[in-house]
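Batch job 17 of 40 flagged for manual review because the log was empty.
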Amino acid sequence: TDVCQRWWKYMTDVMPANPDNSPVSSELQEVFYLP
């Protein structure tokens, strides 16, 4: 959304960002499993 894109641009100085200003993400390791 437009609001998210503006927020991402605003936060680029304190968080890693992709060229389009979206936050850099990575896969998380599964810690536990609930059946």
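Reviewer: the log was empty due to a logging misconfiguration, but the result itself is present. The chain has one helix and no strands. Unflagging and moving on to job 18.
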